[in-house]
Amino acid sequence: MPIDKLDRTAWSLNQTYQHICRICRARYEAATGEKVVLDIGKILSPTALGTSRWQNINLDAQRQLWQALRQGSLHAQGRLSNNRNPVFPDRDAREWIFHSSQLVWIPPEHWISGVLHMDDGSMPERLELQDGEYIDIQIPRFMAQAIWTMPPPKPVEPTEYTTPYLELVKRAISENGIDDWDQSKKVALVAWFKDQHVEGEPLSGNLANAMATIIRMPSSQRGGGKRSWPR
Fold this sequence. Notes:
Layout (H helix, E strand, L loop, with lengths): L9 E3 H20 L7 H5 L8 H19 L5 E5 L1 E2 L11 E2 L6 E2 L2 H6 L1 E4 L5 E6 L2 E9 H7 L16 H12 L10 H9 L2 E2 L2 E2 L2 H10 L3 H4 L10
Helix pairs in contact: 1-3, 7-8
């Protein structure tokens, strides 16, 4: 992919974490068939034993995010400061000031040695080092989505259920000789459908037009279909 077309959308640390939580829940549900729901009562109950499935999955998502950052498989950027506030630790003073205006890459060793600070119980918003601090941490969205992907959909179980309309479509394909090469003319297919009856009733013009559309290849509908021999 050309670099000028690369998706440069950035996620905050919290947005990345929420994405991983969704993927972890989807993977668990796909593997077990069990729906994961947020049980506020169990989380807030002082007598509840252990943690809920929701909490366990979120903790696993946090562990995966932390591991990816420490290993360097997920890149992050932040605004760095190495300037300690001379009036710290006064009540309203921040320890680090004069953060860079440009985002800089956060190396894995800083994730290993640094401390993530959390605000109001949410995901951490700053990474503190012994001699500095990163704020406004951002992660490329495309990297997070490439690492944590939705599980493949479950295969559709075969069924013998059908409807008169489905059977009519199958008959139209057979009787009109439609295949990859010969797509027939739509006007001819519409006329054929209008001559048919389902449960004793003729097909309406709109329904005949719709059914003539869905049995042809999309390329034929765009005018780029393969040639059809005159009938």
